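User: Can you write out an input/output pair for a complex, sequences first and structure second?

Assistant: Here is one pair. Inputs:
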Amino acid sequence: MPELPEVETIKRELEKVVLGKKITGVTIHNQKVIREPQVDKFKKGIIDATIKNIIRKAKLLILELSNGNSLAIHLKMTGQLVYPGDGKSARVSFHLSDGKSLDFNDQRLFAELRLIDDWSALKFIQGLGPEPFDITESRFNKMLSNKKTKIKPLIMDQTFISGIGNLYAAEALFRAKVHPERPANSLSDKEKSLLFQEIKDTLKEAIENKGSSVDQYVQVSGKPGGYVKFHKVYDRQGKPCLVCGTPVKRIALGGRGTFYCPKCQQ
DNA sequence: AATGGGACCTGCGCGC
DNA sequence: TGCGCGCAGGTCCCAT
């Protein structure tokens, strides 16, 4: 599932392969993913525009076009952007001036495409908390200190801090040796600081390895990301903790699968 | 205010 | 071999 590192990887790759190209046509195979505006307006607002700039905000990808419009893409769980596309599993194909196409795939149809004139006015954008790289350690520590809620759902709350999803929340908490059910304000200053550092390091290392290919995520080239082999707890229930050998546990927390080492994480 | 659950979806893996 | 069911998770929405 694309989180900040996966979306950042896609952004960097798109900059290499589609930036500066003109969108000459759009084929919509399934209009469910087009959330706004209406399909024909969507097409009209894109065709003949050039991709001028590519931005990532948390897990949202934004393609700024030469005509003043922006295409905002949220991949949710199974969204993919593939270039050059073959159209086979595309929900939407963007045909480009180089004769190739950028395919938007999405097996589960959860993803959202929006064409708007001002992406910064999107409700989703306005509600986003800061990304981990945009705040200081002391700010992070202060943000946690007045929150009684469980730490894992809290760091996955995009309005609190943005970019972290289920996978990297689990990995960062393991690395910081913090139990996912700890109330946020029960962490010591030392634990808060370590967690903040581990969140940043985990995301950074995942970006360096071009993301984690679990479920559907692939790079724009179609290649899988390389970070899965570094996972310590995610999807490893029953397997020995790589630090102490205790079987990794899986619980449901906030309706989400949560993986942790019951011995290392207290 | 915080928390929990359901909805949105599809395909996969499991048990029988 | 085949069928039904639970599950996967990002975000929104509603209820408590």
